[in-house]
Amino acid sequence: YHKLLLADGLATDIKSLVRGSYSPAIELEENKNPLAFISHLLKQHRDQGKDVEELHLLAHGSKKGIRLGGSLIDAQSIQKQAQELANWQVKKLVLWCCEIGQNLEFIQQLQDKTKTEVFSSKQLLNRDNTWVYDSKGKALHASEIINQKALIHWEGTLVEEELDSDFIETNDDS
Predict the structure, then answer these.
(1) For the segment 128-169, what is each residue's pLDDT rounded down to a tens digit?
(2) Separation CA 53–CA 3 (nearest Å)
(3) Distances (CA, A) of 52 to 70, 109, 126
(4) What DSSP state is assigned to residue 116?
């Protein structure tokens, strides 16, 4: 079956992990609507007869959301694009993002809208902690998608500092 890694192309500190991926990896650059991009990407793969069964998102996160392509994906984004998410047709959605697992509403909405098993972490993800879990406690290790050498040499974390500040996201389309 087919695994796909989608990484935040704007996060320079995760590029070594992307290079160490066993699966095809796509780096998402600046994008105002990353969920629509993912929907389009998955449809393209299906149209080519390459069903993606496991989608891995590698990006900075916090309990508020995930930063992908310079945009914030939060519970509100999931609600707004629920119809698109229903067409993803993946069996596993793996969120390699710090602390997003603390946001039970976000995880539940993602599971409900995508009808898939979602793996996430409630803690910081770094080279010393590379595990994510689904709601039943089933674990996945990052070495299932990224080679061990890249993980050992990785110096960063997947925490989104900006999301933890009092920073307020505004959409100024002028």
Answers:
(1) 889 999 999 999 999 999 999 989 888 876 766 654 443 334
(2) 6
(3) 24, 21, 26
(4) S
Q: State the amino acid at position 170 in one-letter form.
A: T
User: Widest CA span of the chain, in angstroms?
Assistant: 45
- Asked if residue 40 lies in contact with residue 3, where contact means CB atoms within 8 angstroms, the answer is no
- Report the DSSP beta bridge partners of residue 132: 140
d(CA 34, CA 70): 9
d(CA 21, CA 151): 10
pLDDT tens for residues 72-129? 999 999 999 999 999 999 999 999 999 999 999 999 999 999 999 999 999 988 888 8
Residues 6+ away with beta carbon under 8 Å from 155: 13, 127
